[in-house]
Amino acid sequence: MSEKDQKIWKTVACIPRGHVATYGQIADLAGCGRAARMVGRSMSKAPASKRLPWHRVINASGQISLPVDSRGYVTQRQRLQSEGVVFRGKRIDLKKFQWQPTLDELLWKLEG
Question: What's 3-98's CATH class?
Answer without folding.
Answer: mainly alpha
